[in-house]
């Protein structure tokens, strides 16, 4: 039998059970068997111990870096991105004269059919383009003078770029250029009468879909023909065509550069259709005669990379009228180039810039694009250290003070030391790789990838392969026919190196790419066997026969002569390798750059092989989503897809590990 005895001080009878050797009298007077305790000594010892511990804690506090502000910071969320406080403000600065900028564009677009520009900064004359024709107005109160006359059925546009010239050749919408004195106007006349027409369906807003038609030459089809004209606006308008060089006069060609080098002379560059031969001419605006420029005359421009920027840098933007001011204060073709970097060390936290000079090159607007918060300043060319601040995005700076943002590291791989951390990061690779493009820059970015990294411990990687720009002539020449294979090889080589880092979880890796980047992500999936747990491909190019002639033929040649190159580059030929991969395709049905036809052809073949894929369409949205709701939905869809996929991969890995332990 067990007896439970509770000892306390309330009942004397129970206390006798606890101490049977004591008499009631002894218990009542607090008798003890041992010697009396030294309470004073105990107290002193406790005080000494507390003092020593206080000194240790104080030392730790003083010597440990203060990281409490990091612990108090919150993660960047999708709701933050949708707030106005987290958006970069662009003041839209444009130079109207040599004295100061105005914070609104110098040219404007109305009803998507009109574009106006001033003839000379400070004067009130202007030209504008309406429905494919150019109109000139000498003053605000005068009636416009029509400079060109074309009929809509002719499919000719004057002074503006069509799709091909805007996206692939000039990379700008305006296709007209004022002379230095404002007396003459040079403009392109682009004829698309023989160019095939692309139809883009629009499904919303009516009982039946409507179609938007525009000229779009695909690989191997007829391309637009462009002619260069100059009209003299002093006195009766007089127009002359600039005669192209004999070698290209009867052949398909592009005009890729027009710039005035004096009030009556222009520098013009023609390209053959394959874009592997160019002819630079100086044209006389008064006669229309054009003469080819010799190699000696091109010495100054051709040596910018080799002598001006060394073999480690590239000239990415060339401003003909200000190059001597920006790069070379004094240039001696027979001597040494005296270089001067105007933008270096001007603004704290800025190492990625874009500059726009005033018409007389006495001032310039400097756009600090990163790595810190973007800023816009105006500087004097003579004393760049003095400037006027136009925009510092202080609301954005304040909003980001309490946010935990990912740290950006730049690596040139392979590297010997990568650093160590106890945290295991998921890896997401952002694939771009556009030939001649640069993904790895110090430009400030705040978008859904930063949210993915901040909230879900995802390491983000952007990679420039061997064909990227920004490294000067040390970059090896790449065979243009291997448009995809070499880039896929470069990316997979980097992935293999990053997988060796101790803080990268090589069991949870993902890919993301858009357009050409989407094409590369699918090619990387086809080249590996479940190396990547999930992939998001946005508006992917799947077959270069379906893509722009200017782009496809630049790298692969004409399909009739390079059928093997086109077949090798196509994703459609490798759908069997995508059958068991996990990937998401996103596409706007009204995409005018990478038509939905690319995804439709891919989906048709994926269905035939019973492939596993997910699809998200955006009705009547183009290559760049316009509707705010569509943008928000796209961002959340990609983040949720990658997060869910990678988390699911982690759970599967845990189950497999448990099964191995049971075995």
Q: Quote the distance from N terminus to C terminus.
A: 48 Å
Looking at the overall shape, the CATH architecture of one domain is 3-Layer(aba) Sandwich
Shape: globular
How many E strands? 30
Largest sheet: 6 strands, parallel
Q: Return Rg in Å.
A: 35 Å
- Number of helix segments? 16
> Structural class per helix/strand content?
alpha+beta
| Mean of all residue-level pLDDT scores | 79
Which percent range fits the helix content? 25-40%
| Main sheet strand line-up | 26-25-27-28-29-30
The CATH class label of one domain is: Alpha Beta
Low-confidence stretches: 1-30, 104-114, 296-311, 320-339, 414-422
Strand content: 15-25%
Look up the CATH topology of one domain.
Rossmann fold
CATH superfamily of one domain: Alpha/Beta hydrolase fold, catalytic domain
Describe this protein with a few key phrases.
30 strands, transmembrane, AB_hydrolase_fold, Dipeptidyl-peptidase 6b, 26% helix, 16 helices, alpha+beta, six-stranded parallel sheet, 663 residues, transmembrane helix, Peptidase_S9_cat, disordered N terminus
């Amino acid at each position: 039998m067990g007896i439970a005895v509770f000892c306390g001080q309330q009942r004397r009878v129970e206390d006798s059970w606890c101490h049977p050797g004591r008499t009631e009298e002894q218990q009542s007077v607090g008798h003890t068997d041992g010697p009396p305790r030294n309470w004073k000594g105990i107290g002193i010892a406790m005080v000494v111990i507390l003092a020593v511990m206080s000194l240790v804690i104080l030392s730790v506090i003083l010597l440990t870096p203060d990281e409490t502000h990091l612990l108090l910071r919150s993660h960047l969320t999708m709701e933050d991105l949708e707030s106005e406080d987290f958006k970069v403000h662009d003041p839209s600065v444009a130079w109207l004269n040599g004295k100061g900028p105005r914070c609104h564009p110098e040219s404007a677009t109305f009803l998507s059919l009109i574009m106006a520009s001033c003839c000379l900064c400070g004067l009130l004359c202007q030209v504008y383009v309406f429905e494919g024709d150019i109109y000139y107005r000498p003053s605000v109160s005068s009636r416009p003078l029509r400079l060109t006359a074309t009929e809509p059925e002719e499919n000719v546009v004057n002074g503006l770029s069509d799709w091909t010239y805007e996206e692939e050749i000039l990379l700008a919408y305006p296709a007209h250029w004022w002379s230095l004195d404002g007396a003459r106007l040079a403009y392109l006349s682009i004829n698309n009468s023989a160019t095939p027409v692309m139809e883009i369906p629009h499904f919303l807003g009516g009982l039946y879909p409507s179609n938007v038609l525009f000229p779009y030459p695909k690989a191997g089809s007829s391309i637009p023909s462009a002619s260069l004209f100059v009209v003299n606006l002093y006195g009766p308008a007089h127009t002359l065509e600039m005669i192209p060089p004999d070698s290209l006069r009867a052949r398909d060609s592009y005009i890729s550069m027009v710039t005035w080098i004096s009030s009556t002379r222009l520098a013009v560059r023609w390209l053959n259709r394959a874009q592997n031969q160019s002819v630079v001419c100086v044209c006389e605006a008064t006669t229309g005669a054009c003469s080819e420029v010799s190699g000696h005359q091109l010495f100054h421009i051709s040596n910018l990379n080799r002598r001006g920027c060394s073999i480690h840098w590239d000239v990415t933007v060339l401003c003909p009228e200000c190059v001597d001011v920006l790069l070379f204060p004094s240039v001696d073709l027979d001597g040494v180039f005296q270089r001067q970097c105007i933008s270096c060390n001007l603004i704290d936290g800025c190492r990625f810039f874009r500059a726009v000079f005033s018409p007389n090159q006495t001032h310039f607007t400097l756009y600090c694009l990163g790595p810190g918060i973007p800023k816009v300043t105006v500087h004097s060319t003579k004393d760049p250290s003095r400037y006027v601040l136009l925009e510092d995005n202080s609301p954005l700076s304040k909003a980001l003070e309490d946010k935990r943002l990912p740290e950006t590291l730049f690596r040139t791989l392979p590297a010997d030391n990568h650093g160590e951390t106890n945290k295991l990061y998921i890896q997401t690779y952002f694939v771009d790789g556009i030939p001649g493009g640069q993904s790895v820059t110090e430009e400030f970015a705040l978008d859904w990838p930063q949210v993915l990294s901040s909230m879900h411990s995802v390491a983000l990687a952007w990679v420039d392969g061997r064909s990227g720009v920004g490294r000067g002539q040390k970059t090896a020449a790449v065979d243009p026919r291997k448009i995809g294979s070499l880039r896929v090889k470069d990316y997979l080589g980097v992935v293999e190196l990053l997988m060796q880092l101790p803080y990268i979880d090589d069991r949870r890796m993902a890919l993301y790419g858009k357009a050409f980047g989407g094409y590369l992500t699918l090619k990387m999936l086809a080249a590996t066997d479940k190396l990547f747990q999930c992939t998001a491909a946005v508006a992917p190019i799947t077959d270069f026969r379906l893509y722009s002639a200017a782009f496809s033929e630049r790298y692969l040649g004409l399909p009739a002569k390079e059928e093997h190159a086109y077949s090798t580059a196509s994703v459609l030929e490798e759908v069997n390798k995508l059958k068991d991969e996990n990937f998401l395709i996103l596409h706007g049905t009204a995409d005018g750059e990478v038509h939905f036809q690319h995804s439709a052809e891919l989906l048709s073949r994926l269905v035939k092989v019973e492939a596993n894929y997910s699809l998200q369409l955006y009705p009547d949205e183009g290559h760049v989503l316009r509707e705010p709701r569509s943008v928000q939905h796209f961002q959340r869809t990609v983040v949720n897809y990658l997060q869910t996929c990678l988390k699911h991969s982690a759970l599967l890995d845990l189950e497999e590990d448990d099964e191995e332990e049971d075995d």
